[in-house]
Amino acid sequence: MRILNPDVDVEQFFTHVKEATERVLLLDYDGTLAPFHRRPEWAMPYPRVVDTLKQITQQRSARVVIVSGRRLADLRGPLAKIGLTEAWAAHGWEQLTAKGVPVDHQPTSSAKRLLLLAEVRARGLEMHGVRVERKTASVAVHWRGVSSSSSGLAQEKLRGAWHRIEGDQLDRLEFEGGIELLARGRNKANAVMEILSTCSANAACAYLGDDTTDEGAFAAIKSRGLAVLVRPGLRPTCADLWLEPPLELIAFLEQWCAGGEVH
Asked: Rounded to whole angstroms, how far apart are CA atoms 195 and 96?
């Protein structure tokens, strides 16, 4: 574990976790709770993560929310495994409430037209082995597991294929193993802020994420809690704390769990 923000006192933070009447743990999934896999459905959580999160969900005033770039349909398996009912998916465009009710947020019609064009142009690159994924408000191209020569060629062609599509309607998100065009208006930071708006002022909060797509969420949580980067290697980030998975991640979750009381 490495403290990245000198103003953060981790011991004091966990004292607050223990004393708080409301504890809110926000978690990315791929790359954070589970190592990346070329086939997302095969991305299994690190050992002991599931059991620890299940224990946390049994505690009084505990709230655990997954905040992911995945589609909600692709999150249901991990949610069931962990025993969670609340999530924000597709970078904040899809929501599953604490009561298990799905809520879809739709981009503008002009953004939808641009995303359709982006998808059509990206589909032509699948011959190079990349995977094109259409979501509610984005199009993602994945090249994880593809040879460097093929992925390099695909990326070069993608720059031309998506030229002038971004504009003021779509944002480009570069992540580890791919790139995504996302409709403006909602993102992980918005999801975090909406979650925090429903929490009490003294709630103990933390957001754990790994990728550059989590940076907005880190910035959103910092006024109310701890921003935690979880990944094998350190990268430039605004997070307060860096954990190397799986051991430091598990230690953090277990310490969070130790601060709560079981029903």
From this structure: 12
> Tokens 């704390």 label which residue?
241
User: Strand, coil or helix: what is 228?
Assistant: strand
pTM: 0.94
Other CB atoms within a 10 A radius of the CB of residue 119 amount to: 17
For domain 2-105+190-258, the CATH architecture is 3-Layer(aba) Sandwich (3.40)
Q: Which helix (H) or strand (E) holds 62?
A: strand 62-67
Would you tell me the crossing angle of helices 10-19 and 247-258 to the nearest 10 degrees? 40
Q: Cα separation of 236 and 221, whole Å?
A: 17
Q: Give the torsion sign (CA, 122, 217, 99, 14).
A: positive
Domain boundaries, the chain: 2-105+190-258, 109-183
- Is the separation of the CB atoms in 120 and 133 below 8 Å? no
> Is the CATH number of domain 109-183 3.40.50.2300?
no
Mean pLDDT by 10 residues, the chain (263 residues): 96 95 96 85 88 93 95 93 92 95 95 96 92 96 92 91 86 92 96 96 97 97 96 97 97 91 45
Longest dimension (CA), the chain: 56
